[in-house]
Please model this.
Amino acid sequence: MKKFTTALTAGVLAAMPLSALADSDDPIVIPIHNWSSQIVMSNVVGQIFEDMGNNVEFVTTDSQAVYESVRLGDVTLELEVWEGAFGASFRAALEKGGLHDAGDHNAVTREDWWYPMWTKDACPGLPSWEALNDCAALFATAETGDKGRYLDGPVDWLKHGQERVAALGMNFQVVNAGSAAALWAEIGAAEADKTPVVVFNWTPNFAEAVWPGEFVEFPAWEDGCDKDPAVGPNPDALYDCGNPATGYLKKAAWDGMADKWPDAYATLQKISFTNPQIAEMAKFVDIDEMEPEEAAEVWLEQNEDVWGAWVN
Ligand code: TMO
Model:
């Protein structure tokens, strides 16, 4: 009888398409970084995988080193590959092998120097970077002397602000924020008396619904601007371009994911968030002060029609 059952089971299994095989019980490892939409989106997708019967483990990791971890299979996937901040690390890992592009989100992204609109009243030539540079004295602080202060993102986002200032001969000093929250605090503090400020910001984000503003227009991004000094207006320098103005937002996956968790992988391939959905995820945390797990639960409750279509 035992033999018969085994043979029958084997026969049934052989007749089933591969995708009908169950996902491994091992946890799908999802990385968490230091900006709100990524944390909420990771919780949203983790909760979807759990709903499908999978085990999920979250790990807090550096947002650049994560590509090496995914390539090696220590981390299973990455849900927010922003072209501007992480394109170089993603491409480097792709070249080494072990990780692949698991598709684009619907979202179009931009990450760059940004100012709230009141700054333009004081510096009407904006958004051009040359006009910003001519207004550098408006942004001077005790900390930066006669140079303008630019508050860049946390160091691990590798925005190369200092290299850009040097490459374009700008009269600015770059200060790295310790956290995303420090960027919002800087804008919030400037709002009361409409002090001109220029800080790193991105879209999609909650900030666009709170503070109308614009990105500074630098020389347009060209492929190779971070690799080949000849690319961009300064023939001797890297990083003499802005970030991509219509950047991608990709998902990345470890090559072994499709075999080990075929159902979850099929869902990952279908997952695609829009700009408004991502901005709302950030808002739940940065404005409404929800915990990320709670924000994910609320998002899932309110968008069952969206994510239901991604699950078989
Ligand atoms: C990586 N980020 C979206 C914060 O620019």
